[in-house]
Amino acid sequence: MPRSSIARVICSAIIVLGVFGRRAAAQDQCNLAKDLVVQALERIKTGTNDEVGDGLQLLKHATEVCINSGDAWYYRFLFEKKLGQAPKADYSMKKAKMFGSEAMDQVADPFQLAANPGTLGAASGPVHEKWALVVGISKFHDKGLGRLNFAGKDAEDFAALLVDPAVGRFDPANVHSLVEGEVTTRQLKQELNWLARSASDPNDLVVIFLSSHGTPRNKDTAEVNYIATSDTEVEPEDNLFATALPMVQVSDIVRTRIKAQRTVILLDTCHSGAAAGPSQGHAASLVSDSSASIAVLDRIRQGVGRAIVTSSSPDEKSYEGQPYSNGYFTHFLLEALRRNGGHDSIEQIYASLKQNVSKAAGSIQRKQTPVFSHSERGAEIVIGAPPSGGQ
Fold first, then answer.
1. Between the CA of residue 210 and those of 49, 155, 310, 345, what are the distances in Å?
2. Which of 220, 245, 268, 345 is most buried per CB count within 10 Å?
3. Measured between alpha carbons, how far is 23 from 28 in angstroms, rounded to an integer?
């Protein structure tokens, strides 16, 4: 091959590598922007100007590092509008429309509580309809996440209990289960949207059961902000946060879109493999699985009739396996629900869970303490309450 031809080939290769390099760098920046959007939304608990102002600074940074992030522009619009910055908000909305935004299409609004104490009041009548989303993710494409031994089985057993006419009393058509082992972020978001559309009556009851890895934001904090799904990538770190499901999306659907004023979340996002010790498949890059942070619990309980029970405190792990055929949390959750035919309140369920899970973990020289958080207002939540169906 003539030298001139070789030179042209080399130049073409350099150009191609340069293009791919720039694209990869741009993608890393947009992954960072997604994480900044999540951090901004996490700032919003009660919607004070200080919370909104802090969040807006993060959103401005997100639109700087990834100018075509439609979601960042859309949330920037909402935050600027909340602060009375109308001209800036109009500009941000134009950008959101230009680039397209999934959050905008869903009319997401972190400042609007679906079960607002000031407008709806607490549901006090019988349960109208009951809806449930049950998710257990045990298989992950990324080998760094390994495999969870009982997450899928935990979800399958819990779903079976919900449709048991002697315990859960849920209409099988109203229980969506993702228990086959592989669940993508897209699938999980679609199911959460189904739940938000379905539970439209204040007197409805909603149950969300979710079991998977819980990922920390970085190596320096113990906060849980993401749930690992089957297509989550653990490396590089920006990909981890771009491909996992932000916990803030779950909390925002509960806060702003589910009108049912009896809603309980059962969250098992911290696993250590077998009871004898950590799983060999545990992701080294994650440092450790994490349970829900106090900030996450506080955010979800805003409004009326919200309750969340997590399998362990933020600085603990959750155990699974011997002597049970489930995770410890799920085993005693099923046991507590069956004890009184599903008629115990969520407070009574939690009291039983806390005692029995802690005792079981202590028997193997481990510590695991379930955590409970709930709204200040709301009717009693009884998972096995029979639905009236509007009658």
1. 33, 7, 10, 20
2. 268
3. 9
Q: Two tokens at 225?
A: 């902000």
Question: Which pTM value belongs to this model?
Answer: 0.82
User: No. of H helices and E strands in the chain?
Assistant: 12, 9
DSSP H or E run through 178: strand 175-181
Sheet hosting strand 205-211, strand order edge to edge: 175-181, 130-137, 205-211, 262-268, 306-310, 371-374
**What distance in Å separates the CA atoms of residue 145 and residue 142, rounded to the nearest whole number?**
6
* CB contact at 8 A, 208 and 195: yes
Which domains does the chain carry?
3-104 (1.25.40.10), 130-374 (3.40.50.1460)
pLDDT in tens, 127-183: 999 999 999 988 888 877 777 888 899 999 999 999 999 999 999 999 999 987 678
The residues near 106 (Cβ < 8 Å, ≥ 6 apart) are 193
Q: Which two tokens stand for residue 384?
A: 């096995």
Task: Return the residue matching tokens 């057993």.
Answer: 157
Q: Tally the residues of the chain.
A: 391
Interval 273-297: pLDDT, tens: 433 333 333 433 343 556 666 666 6
